Amino acid sequence: MDANGIIHRADADDRPRPRSMTTDDTVPDPLEEQLPAVRTALAEASRLLACLDFDGTLAPIVDEPDAAAPTPANEAAVETLADEPAVTTAVISGRALADVRERVDGPSIYAGNHGLELERRGSVAVHPVARKRATRIERACEALETVLEPIPNARIEDKRLTATVHVRSVPPAAEPVVERRTREIVDRFGGDELEISGGKQILEIEPSIPWGKGNALELIDAELPDDTVALYIGDDTTDESAFRAVEPDGFGVLVGDDEPSAASARVASPAEVASFLEWLGETGVELLAE
Ligand SMILES: O=P(O)(O)OC[C@H]1O[C@H](O[C@H]2O[C@H](CO)[C@@H](O)[C@H](O)[C@H]2O)[C@H](O)[C@@H](O)[C@@H]1O
């Protein structure tokens, strides 16, 4: 685990780098510095695709995952943006689709489980390999409930296609035990078919397939006019693939500090996300080409 509480996947030499890091990543500019470029891109586009992460972006990070909720300002700004005819609004979350859908109203598109399930036009598509491996996730979750039961505040979130082991409220001395037991269980029930990645004070157990939020975003974008400008706002390691999907023609906006990212702009908090979404709903949409 690093100083920011982010648990990175165990790096064997032949494994991909943690998804937050590539050698091309740089520190994003404060959003104000990128606003002229955002204005220009909007003026050259006929449509805006606004894709939003949930935890840490629309909703402040809290100790209890079930208690996460969008700030009232974000709730209102998302609904306003979603009502705009020239804007397609999507939430792309690491949570299960049914979970995140309950937490945010307005968008016409939702992706859950880091893009493994995608709801649009009234139907849900599930990645076929992830669907096949759901039984392994279920078995791993059952075993984790047993082996992590003695660890105070270790929490397992079974999301059917993936699972999250939360360590935010686990005593620091017990975190290595949680990580070791989780790896043992994933090896036993997942073999080569499951892997562990990182996030904010979590271990994400997921099918070992090259699919992430960026792939879901590309599927959504592919159905929109060519002159659509795409935007993605997110705060965590799994958001990096979505930043890469929108950059450099669109805009990735990191919610966080001055850390390297594939996003070109950054804001500090969900409150600043709301201000940007409000600006997009009031001013940004007016800039879109007729
Ligand atoms: O892609 P996201 O929508 O940001 O989802 C990523 C994970 O978010 C949740 O966990 C995080 O938020 C919790 C509530 O604030 C916090 O307690 C936890 O420490 C964070 O990692 C969610 O519970 C996970 O399922 C998502 O994968």
TrEMBL record:
Keyword presence, Magnesium: yes
UniProt region (Disordered), positions on chain: 1-32
GO biological process: trehalose biosynthetic process
Cofactor(s) in the UniProt record: Mg(2+)
Reaction catalysis annotation: alpha,alpha-trehalose 6-phosphate + H2O = alpha,alpha-trehalose + phosphate
Keyword Transport annotated: no
Listed InterPro entries: HAD-like_sf (IPR036412), HAD-SF_hydro_IIB (IPR006379), HAD_sf (IPR023214), OTSB-like (IPR044651), Trehalose_PPase (IPR003337)
EC number: 3.1.3.12
Domain of life: Archaea
Pathway noted in the entry: Glycan biosynthesis; trehalose biosynthesis
Keywords: Hydrolase, Magnesium, Metal-binding
Feature: compositional bias, Basic and acidic residues: 8-17
Molecular function GO terms recorded: metal ion binding; trehalose-phosphatase activity
Family the entry assigns: Belongs to the trehalose phosphatase family.
Job description of the protein: Removes the phosphate from trehalose 6-phosphate to produce free trehalose.
UniProt-listed NCBIfam families: HAD-SF-IIB, T6PP
Protein name: Trehalose 6-phosphate phosphatase
Source organism of this protein record: Halopiger xanaduensis (strain DSM 18323 / JCM 14033 / SH-6)
